[in-house]
Amino acid sequence: MSDGTPGGGETLELPCGETKRVRALDLGMREFECACGERHAVVMDVHPPERFLPDFLVSVLREAVETTSDEMPEFGTAHLLGIVLEEFPGKVVSADVSDDGDVGAGIVWVTDFDSRRLHEVVVELVVELMDHAVSHADDDAAVSQFETQMLEFDVSEFVEEYRAERDLDGDDVYAR
User: Fold this and answer.
1) Among candidates 45, 12, 44, 19, which has minimal Cα distance to 31?
2) Exposed/middle/buried for 37, CB within 10 Å: 0-12, 13-18, 19+?
3) Residue 7: pLDDT above 50?
4) How far is CA 136 from the centre of its chain?
């Protein structure tokens, strides 16, 4: 949907009811302050999944998860946001902006969550995905060990440590 302003570009209707021009979102933006008073996370398909998960886990997911998309055959950010969208359909909006060369991305997502909460949601959903996969294993010891480790796993603490480890500040490409 075009917003009718000079220069064109798509306008997203955000989960909060406000609108945002897609061209107002840039590749380095991870969230923005909305007119509704809240902060909304921004994710683009060109952002690496390592924004949310450590390299080793992304590698494991790429090996373990079979994708059905010819356009995106390798597990990545689009798949992570697809999981979030499926779980929270009213909290995520997206736009295919691949025909708009001024945006610099193919798909843009904006969530009702701020970037930190979105990070936690992504980790929670990946843990659920892993739990589901392990529950189908024929190895009862492995299932038990995984469940024990997950009881000790604190998503919020992980996100805090991961973000600190990545030294996420305003100048970092993975910021916020």
Assistant:
1) 44
2) exposed
3) no
4) 26
Residues in the chain: 176
* Rounded-to-integer distance, Cα 46 and Cα 138, Å: 37
Of 43, 112, 31, 124, which is closest to residue 77 (Cα–Cα)? 43
List the structure tokens of 154.
């604190």
Q: What does 48-89 look like in DSSP terms, one character per residue?
A: -GGGTS-HHHHHHHHHHPPP--SS--S--HHHHHHHHHHH-G
Tokens 């570009």 sit on residue: 9
Mean pLDDT for 142-166 is 86
69 Cβ contact list (under 8 Å, min separation 6): 78
Q: Which pLDDT tens digit goes with each residue over 161-173?
A: 998 887 655 454 4
- Provide the total of helices (H) and of strands (E) in the chain, helices listed first: 5, 6
- Which of 25, 27, 67 minimizes the C-alpha distance to 46? 27
- Measured distance CA(157)–CA(171) in Å, rounded: 23
Claim: this prediction has a pTM higher than 0.70: yes
